[in-house]
Amino acid sequence: MITGATSGLGQQLASLAALRGADVIVAVRSPERAERTRLMLEDLAPRGTISTVHLDLTSFDSVQAALAEIHERWDSLDVVVNNAGVMAIDEALGPDGFDLTMTVNHLSATLLSVGVIDLLERSSAPRLTFTSSVVHWLSRLRPGLLGEAPSPYRRWVAYARSKEANLATALELDRRARDANSPLTILCAHPGVAATHLGHEGHGLSNLVMRSLGPHLLPTAQQGAASLAEAAFTDSYPGGSFVGPSGLFAGSPHRARVSAYAADPRHGREVLDRTLALIDAQLVFNLRTS
Ligand SMILES: NC(=O)c1ccc[n+]([C@@H]2O[C@H](COP(=O)([O-])OP(=O)(O)OC[C@H]3O[C@@H](n4cnc5c(N)ncnc54)[C@H](OP(=O)(O)O)[C@@H]3O)[C@@H](O)[C@H]2O)c1
Predict the structure, then answer these.
(1) Domains in the chain: how many in total?
(2) Ligand 1: residues within 6 Å at CB?
(3) Predicted confidence (pLDDT) per residue in 11-57, tens digit
(4) CATH number at residue 223
(5) 24 — phi, psi (to 5°)?
(6) pLDDT digits (tens, 9 = 90+) for 85-140
(7) What residues make up the domain containing 97?
(8) Which regions of the chain does DSSP assign to beta strands (E)?
(9) Residue 30 falls within a domain, yes or no?
(10) Main-chain phi, psi angles of 134, to 5 degrees
(11) Of ligand 1's atoms, which has the minimum distance to the CA of residue 56?
(12) Which of 71, 177, 234, 280 lies 20 to 30 Å from 245, alpha-carbon distance?
């Protein structure tokens, strides 16, 4: 299951999975783009099935509805890729009252992830991945303020915080999964930079620059997806790894550096605990039985 598979890196990941013959679930917010993506993937996928699930990460209600649908339709999941995201958007709160960037990129992604752990644990070698960014290095997220927008609002700070929350959460979830002897492997990856639709929304100068120059200057989505695919679809890296391109912005997948801030287990614990409180969710791992 891949979130945000209608565009950019998510579409590349879904295509790679389909080409490998996987049964792919694309969890996306627009019914029209879902259908277009399904048809595109079916052309690529002679062996696997392509299914769509409606998921709007803007609201916790939509995530809960998606979780109900997923549990009704599937008994287990092998791989869940948290890829959907927004970057440098205009200041806004989601319907649950939290900063919209943090809601879409981190809070809802964590709600979805925690809600599918039971399905993942029924699979033989399950993997759960999150998508972060090199900009996580710029974040000094205070867990107590996790749901609040930067004040005064700065779109890149909001994005950096959400990507640091993704990374700190992935690392902490993996620590807790291992403590619980869960079969689940949890990793984080980043693509470097890639020409996608990311950053095109919004009325800031940087959005204008991204829209006009990004497509001409940045590596392709296919290049960017390589590290995300390595984390999600291979067992080259153990749980708790951060996978990214060998160069700062591009290159072949390797183990990327995590900021000391995001790597700090105490910080990870605080970020995850605060997140679970805001999304009103409980983390339950099952013991490995074999
Ligand atoms: N591209 C880069 O340089 C770069 C660098 C570092 C990290 N990343 C990360 O890579 C991930 C993918 O980004 P991308 O570059 O592929 O961007 P993209 O082309 O803009 O794709 C983003 C995807 O997320 C979906 N999405 C956005 N808001 C959503 C919501 N509320 N609910 C459900 N889905 C939503 C979009 O759906 P719609 O089609 O409906 O809009 C789209 O499928 C993001 O997490 C981003 O932070 C990207």
Answers:
(1) 1
(2) 4, 6-10, 28-30, 33, 55-58, 83-87, 104, 131, 133, 190-191, 193-194, 196-198, 224
(3) 999 999 999 999 999 999 999 999 999 999 999 987 899 999 999 99
(4) 3.40.50.720
(5) -105, 135
(6) 999 999 999 999 999 999 999 999 999 999 999 999 999 999 999 999 999 999 99
(7) 75-279
(8) 2-3, 24-28, 50-54, 79-82, 127-131, 185-189, 242-245, 253-255
(9) no
(10) -65, -20
(11) 32
(12) 177
